[in-house]
Specification:
heterodimer; A: mainly alpha; Four Helix Bundle (Hemerythrin (Met), subunit A); 2 domains; 13 helices; elongated; B: mainly alpha; 6 helices
Chain lengths: 289, 162
């Protein structure tokens, strides 16, 4: 895990913990209120009903942004713009559906039955407080135009197809990423080791980890197993035969031998040599790939 | 390994003891007795069998039940934190026991205990803070904050897992 990634995790963890603490602190004042009719269903006009959805749209957009930032690896972030566009389309579709549902529901209000005024009802009317909600006025039902249904159906179908394609693409990308060539995997491990070295991690541990991960990657992906009878230097010769640069591999192998079998502490000079060697290996790997 | 077992025993005792004291002070003797039995079960069998999930789950369930019965929050916070520490140490001990030879075992145990203490201390501090502070939030804000917490923690856990 690189230093930058570790810092990023720490920042995300801090935000998550702060949010969790605030929500936990608010739990004690949580009160359950009786159910109320949503404002959208109380409105008799459609334009204010859409405006009342602004908070819903805001929360949805915030979730999209957070999901975009936190859930997407850097390598996939640019490609995921298509997914964000699809999500925005879904949000627009939801708003449209809610708007249409509100218009439909409000378009058919219950028809008030006019009752003949009697002295009793007159008394009741005078005793009704002013805060009572006014009686909904009668409005004529106007069904949405035909093209609205067509657009919604076609849009839903397109979104479903786009979602399925996106899932397939994402799975394919993950599979292709997991099938990185040994050299690319080695480059990735070497880059992590450089980050750890520059981040002040123990030089000995970094060199050991880098070397053993290099051995592990080659074993897992290419079947090149460093058996016990093969010394590190002989193994370095085998790696050089694969096309990796011989000089930095030899340097790394010497560093490995020094920290693994030697008794002296690894110093800053060893760290510099390790960084130089690993950089050379990365450059060579990327050039070959 | 010895110090890990010792700290695990202490954490397990604290995990069941603190809520048991709180329950006893509240007059819920049956729950205090239940915590005592769970403690014996946890400490007595943990070295022979791996009961990490079961004992920890029972302990957390008992603490949640105690919270419903208005047992003092301080006892419960200490109990939860100690239960988490005991659970972690039991798993850590199991992993260490499965390895034939461990290089730098002392340093590894020391680092793990230091990080565990740091996490437990920070968790206890944040939980105490959350239990003392009173905030009133609207539903929308609470939803956004909860989403941030869930997404953030999920991201961090996935990152650590990778």
């Amino acid at each position: 895990m690189s230093i930058q990634y570790r810092r990023k995790l720490l920042i995300v963890l801090s935000f998550a913990c702060a949010a969790l603490v605030i929500v936990a602190a608010a739990l004690s004042s949580l009160t359950m209120l009786p159910a109320q009719t949503a404002p959208i269903l109380r409105e008799t006009r459609t334009v204010p009903a859409v405006l009342d959805l602004s908070w819903l749209v805001g929360v949805t957009l915030a979730l999209y942004v957070l999901g975009f930032i936190f859930l997407t690896p850097a390598s996939l972030r640019r490609r995921l713009v298509y997914a964000v566009v699809a999500l925005v389309g879904i949000a627009a579709l939801i708003v449209l559906l809610v708007w249409l549902a509100g218009a439909t529901v409000l378009g058919v209000p219950p028809t008030p039955t006019p009752a003949p005024l009697t002295p009793t009802t007159e008394l009741l009317e005078t005793s009704v407080p002013e805060t009572e909600e006014p009686v909904i006025e009668t409005a004529s039902f106007t069904p949405p135009p035909r093209w609205v249904g067509t657009v919604i159906t076609a849009g839903s179908g397109l979104l479903l197809i786009a979602g399925a394609l996106f899932i397939l693409w994402r799975r394919q990308t993950q599979i292709s990423e997991s099938r990185l060539s040994p050299l690319l995997q080695l480059a990735r491990e070497a880059r992590l080791a450089i980050d750890a070295l520059q981040g002040g991690e123990n030089v000995r541990e970094v060199i050991l980890r880098c070397y053993f991960e290099m051995v592990y990657v080659l074993d897992e992906t290419r079947g090149i197993r460093r058996v016990e009878t093969v010394t590190p230097r002989e193994f370095a010769v085998q790696l050089a035969a694969l096309g990796l640069p011989a000089a930095p591999i030899t340097t790394l192998t010497e560093l490995f031998e020094a920290v693994r079998y030697g008794t002296g502490p690894a110093d800053a000079e060893a760290a510099k040599r390790a960084i130089t060697s690993l950089t050379a290996i990365i450059t060579a790997c990327e050039g070959q790939s | 390994m010895k110090i890990t077992r010792q700290i695990f025993g202490g954490a397990a005792v604290l995990a069941v003891g603190a809520p048991a004291i709180g329950a006893a002070l509240q007059g819920v003797w049956i729950l205090a007795l239940g915590f005592g039995v769970l403690g014996l079960f946890w400490i007595g069998f943990s070295l022979r069998y791996r009961l990490m999930g079961l004992a920890f789950a029972l302990c957390i369930a008992g603490i949640a039940f105690a919270a419903v019965l208005d047992v003092g929050i301080g006892w419960l916070l200490v109990g939860i934190m100690a239960a988490l520490a005991a659970w972690d140490l039991e798993a850590f001990g199991a992993r260490m026991a499965g390895v034939a030879r461990i290089e730098h075992e002392h340093a590894l145990v020391r680092d793990h205990l230091r990080q565990l203490g740091l996490v437990c201390g920070a968790g206890l501090l944040l939980a105490t803070l959350a239990s003392l502070v009173r905030i009133r939030l609207s539903f929308g804000v609470a939803l956004v904050l909860a989403s941030i917490a869930v997404l953030g923690l999920g991201y961090v856990l996935r990152g650590i897992g990778e």
